[in-house]
Amino acid sequence: MYVDVVRKFIETLDLRNVILCGHSLGGAVIQSYYFKYPFDIAALILIGTGGRLRVLPSTLESVKNNFQEYLDNTEGGFYRSTSTKIIEDYKNEVVKTDPSAIYDDFKICDEFDTLDKTSSIKIPCLILVGNEDVSTPPKYSEFFHKKINISELVIIEKSGHLVMLEQPNKINKAIENFINNYF
User: Fold this and answer.
1) CA dist., res. 78 & res. 127, Å (int)
2) Contact 24, 48 (CB under 8 A)
3) Less CB within 10 Å around the terminal CB: N or C of the chain?
4) 3-class secondary-structure state, position 77
């Protein structure tokens, strides 16, 4: 469904040579989009994602049966010295989403696996990951970098899975450099 929404958006706006960017599940969505519509896309920006995205059973369990427990453990997605304000702002956004939607998204992640297709990506890819990302560790990004011929890997220091919240300036600079180098 997510791929269909992106497709409809691109068609409605009659966009060409699109650069898609996705974090975590969003990275799975844009990979899936590329595999379905490769000629629509000029580049991919893959942030804290992988070709396979397993989710801990305990995470699925807490999202489904004890959402507060899940919220209490979201700090694990951040680097250890991330400000309390950033973490609290994130939690305040997460609680606006129905837990069943979060559960469904985690199930999509858990079932996602395109590892066997990764080397068929033939467009430029920027691969970004936090050096302390435990959800999608840097080894996932290193795998992308090895398998995708036209790729750039940037490991962002002092950040976890939510790297774009923790180090937005570094993320933005890496994206700006990538676009300037390839386009």
Assistant:
1) 19
2) yes
3) N
4) helix
Picking from 30, 1, 3, the residue whose alpha carbon sits closest to that of residue 123 is 30
Taking alpha carbons only, the member of 43, 59, 2 closest to residue 25 is 2
Along the 183 residues of the chain, how does pLDDT read in single tens digits? 999 999 999 999 999 999 999 999 999 999 999 999 999 999 999 999 999 999 999 999 999 999 999 998 887 899 999 999 999 999 999 999 999 999 999 999 999 999 999 999 999 999 999 999 999 999 999 999 999 999 999 999 999 999 999 999 999 999 999 999 999
The whole model's pTM is what? 0.95
Q: Tokens for 168?
A: 């937005």
Under CATH, which number does the domain 10-182 receive?
3.40.50.1820
Q: Which of 148, 127, 122, 147 lies closest to 138 in space, CA to CA?
A: 127
CA pair distance 154, 8, nearest whole angstrom:
31
Residue ranges covered by each domain of the chain:
10-182
